[in-house]
Design goal:
four-stranded antiparallel beta sheet, 11 strands, mainly beta
Length: 123
């Protein structure tokens, strides 16, 4: 059974940093694309960042609004994916969910979702 356990969310002031973690189990990390979505009530879910499958290496995907501020990494030894978020803005406030199970570079076809971790950025 695929499991994704997200953690690391919290409340920070604008300009601050957070690191989200997604601990994975039930599959081989690298067999699917994996990344992060975010949800805001009343808005469409947005793919924030994604790492390609290990068999199809390429540059990570980032939505334009986080380019240069967020960095996604993958630790195969720990079966964990991280999202380092710097220079946070109030617009980054959202529930962040780890997602995997697909093959697209931007995680558009993710089939498995974690429970999410809440990030709140105050001005």
């Amino acid at each position: 059974e695929v499991q994704l356990q997200a953690s690391g969310g919290g409340s920070v002031q604008a300009g601050g940093s957070l690191t989200l973690s997604c601990a994975t189990s039930g599959f081989t990390l690298g067999d699917f694309a994996i990344g992060w979505y975010r949800q805001v009530p009343g808005k469409r879910s947005e793919a924030v960042s994604c790492l390609s499958m290990q068999s199809s290496p390429g540059d990570p995907y980032y939505v334009d609004s986080v380019l240069g501020r967020f960095t996604i990494t993958r630790d195969y030894d720990k079966n964990t994916v991280y999202l380092q978020m710097n220079s946070l803005k109030p617009d980054d406030t959202a529930l962040y969910l780890c997602a995997t199970g697909g093959t697209w570079y931007d995680c558009r076809d993710a089939a498995y979702w974690g429970q999410g971790t809440l990030v709140t950025v105050s001005s």
